Amino acid sequence: MSYIRFENVIKVFDNQTQALKGITLSVEKGELVTLLGPSGCGKSTLLRCLAGLEPVTGGRIFLDNYDITNLSPKQREIGMVFQQYSLFPNMTVEQNVGFGLRIKKMERKVIRKKVQSMLEMVGLSEKIRRYPNQLSGGQQQRVALARALVMEPKVLLLDEPMSAIDALLRRSLQMEIRRIQRSLKITTIFVTHDQDEAMVMSDRIHLFNMGGIEQSGLPAELYTRPRSMFTASFIGHNNIIKAADFNAVSGQRFEGEHIALRPEVISIGVSGKTNGDMRLKGTIKGSIPHGNVLRYTVDCGNITLDADVLFDTSHIFKENQEVYLSFPPDQVSTLQ
């Protein structure tokens, strides 16, 4: 039995706006699951319903095989970290992290031990006497994380906790959160609109779209095998082409309205020889560098494809040069 279960969860605001349209999904114990999607798709609303901060309009929520749908937030034993750090400015790091334990009237000695242990885990034991305004944004977020974890919750909820942090620090914090989550084996649900962040951190991803789940699966599954136009356009960079146009150029017969083909699976060469791969003749129309990758735009008649090639200054294709594109046919995804 799954550790967390959402069964046909519906949320309607103001009797008219349906934020969640019958969400059914499960989370296994110890997993880090990401709810991914654009703003307004319902991912944060589902998180707040699990935390008890929003009542559901319909459906049920189970935690550890117990129906928590109508329990108050404090009865659910769930820790939550928000985008806003919400630290008490007049309290030190130690006081902020131990605040919940003091509310529970734990012994001072026990509180001190738990706080020190948690601050060591998040790498802030040397900042124990500092105040929030003496910390960087990343350090403040780690204090907020420690404050949630020190309560030993059954589940940890992270609602876009790194969206206000610069890109370089964000990557470091992603790895830190993943390390802590695995070390504690705590069941975690992470909300983000950043597909790269979701790919790096998740055991499983649920992609949300307009109050429903568009596609669920392992990160690699969503990346390599999108099943819909929305998934293909939201995760990674896909060439999305009308199937009829692609079939006319390639001589294949892919079903459906559209197909998706990732740029990195396409090779570029000057030979028309085949080795079992599909080959299309085209003309280079331009190129744009993306770090260590050069993305070529290639005109193949009535379709245009992007192809990613490792940046090699000794072999760069020129504009208007005729080339051949090749790729395995099983890399073509048919979209619903």
Q: What is the subunit arrangement here?
A: single chain
- Compute the average pLDDT: 93
pLDDT under 50 segments (min length 5)?
none
Give the number of helices. 10
| Helix vs. strand class | alpha+beta
Percentage of β-strand residues: 25-35%
The strand order across the widest sheet is: 6-7-8-3-9-10
Share of helix, binned: 25-40%
Strands, count: 18
Task: Report the major sheet.
Answer: 6 strands, mixed
**Series of H and E elements:** EEEHEEEHHHHEHEHEEHHEHEEEEEEE
Structure commentary:
The chain has helices at 43-51, 93-97, 99-103, 108-121, 137-149, 167-184, 195-201, 219-224, 229-234, 243-250, and strands spanning 4-13, 17-27, 32-36, 58-63, 66-67, 78-81, 155-159, 187-192, 204-209, 212-217, 239-242, 258-261, 267-269, 278-290, 293-299, 304-310, 322-327, 333-335. It is elongated and about 75 Å long. The model has no long low-confidence stretch (mean pLDDT 93). Helix 4 crosses helix 5. It is built from ten helices and 18 strands. By secondary structure, the chain is of the alpha+beta class.
